[in-house]
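YM 10:42: DJ-1/PfpI domain-containing protein sequence, as discussed on the call
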Amino acid sequence: MNARVLLIVTSHARLGETGQPTGFWLEELAAPYRAFVEAGADVDIASPQGGKPPADPKSAQDPSGAVQAFLEDERAKAKLSSTLRIDGIAGDHDAYFVVGGHGVMWDLAEDAATARLLGRAFDQGKVVAAVCHGPGALVNARLASGEPLVKGRRVSAFSDEEEQAVGLADVVPFALESRLRSLGARYERGPVWKPFAVRDGRLVTGQNPASSALVAQETLAALAEQEPRESAR
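YM 10:58: structure's back
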């Protein structure tokens, strides 16, 4: 596959006022990275502040095969240690994939550069994807029409029930599922902690960390549908 994919991660390292560390979730970066690279895509990683972003320490516990492979991949680690700044991204990738982790709720959800990048990408016919808390980056993304990117579209994301289950419903700045619904998104979900992903055309979203590989597969499927159009230019 001749495609360029941008993985977007949070730069935020603190869980509200709790004093506890947070950041991006390793599985949600590692599984998609592996899927995209194995499919032949050229993968970049970006964050609001650039440089090395914070991984949630909890996500390094009992690592999956995808996480272990990522941490043993020197090229992958080099990209993660020197992420690109989102406000410097030219917008010439074919797909934009927002990695989750609670940190997203504090920076990517409010980052104007991220909102502009994702809204413009979708307007230009690119694929936009996000997993778990990653859809938090979509809440301020607007299309050229001024409408929310998610309005009227099927989406999934970390559910309010799951946020309650991890004891952080009163810590996060907003309830992600509820916010998406308020923007007119057609929210869908599966059982807690089980893989669940939704693809609505060029918008692909997933519910939780277990959904990471599935969202990547659906993103690749969406990219494959774009290839005939691209080659016809």
